[in-house]
Amino acid sequence: MDKLPAHITIIMDGNGRWAKQRGMERLFGHRAGTDSVRECCEYAAQIGVRYLSLFAFSEENWNRPESEVNGLMQLMAKAVVNEKPTFQKNNIRFRVIGDLTRLEPSLREEIAQAELETAQNTGLTLIVFLSYSGKWDLLQAATRYGAMCMQAAGQGQEQPSLTPELWANLLATAGIPDPDLMIRTSGEQRISNFLLWQCAYTEFYFTDVLWPDFRKGDLAKAILDFQTRKRRFGLTGEQIIEK
Ligand code: IPE
Ligand code: IPE
Ligand code: MG
Questions:
Q1: Residues framing ligand 1 (Cβ under 6 A)
Q2: Which of 54, 154, 167, 182 has the greatest number of beta carbons closer than 10 A?
Q3: Would the pTM count as exceeding 0.90?
């Protein structure tokens, strides 16, 4: 328990294949995936994980067939409302990160409401990445930095020096520690334009389990695997032992 990852992030993949294996449409898999989300959140909250973040919908996913996109958005809206008791029961703080300007105003309102209602919770912070991509995040940070420089110039001041700390604060994940562990389900071994800057020193864990089958036992297995890793951050093994 002393080597518990503070921030676990999951690329929840394989819903479509899970449904196909059962002769069902893709949305059936997405629906089943929400049960995995609930179980993993409750488990992470109960064992004392500080941050659990979930890649739910990427910028590229907007290019899927309209019926699937609409179905996913409806599922999201339903989950945001229906899961509020789960959040309160487990002292979970709920947040959504991504380019929310592309969402229906009604969904944006439900999200804002759930964020507000859970803002005082002090246990696990659950972050859902929705309409998110790593490149989008880097570009919006660069745009913000540009605006800061313009403002400084307008006031006759020097431009703020660009440090890793300042940059991290310009990202959509400002204030959230970088992930210690990233899990990707369904056998794919790629980052798919997810957290790019933030994963500089993240440990990766890949499993063939499809997301709707991924339950607390699978999450526990990933955490146990993480606990056997030796994170060196560029140092030698000997230096790490001395620390
Ligand atoms: C992950 O499952 C969910 C989303 C990307 C929204 P997929 O829908 O990508 O499932 P596969 O990869 O087609 O099996
Ligand atoms: C990545 O899954 C995005 C999410 C899990 C939300 P995809 O299924 O869209 O990724 P690719 O296209 O196979 O890389
Ligand atoms: Mg996929």
A1: 12-17, 57, 61, 72, 186, 211
A2: 182
A3: yes
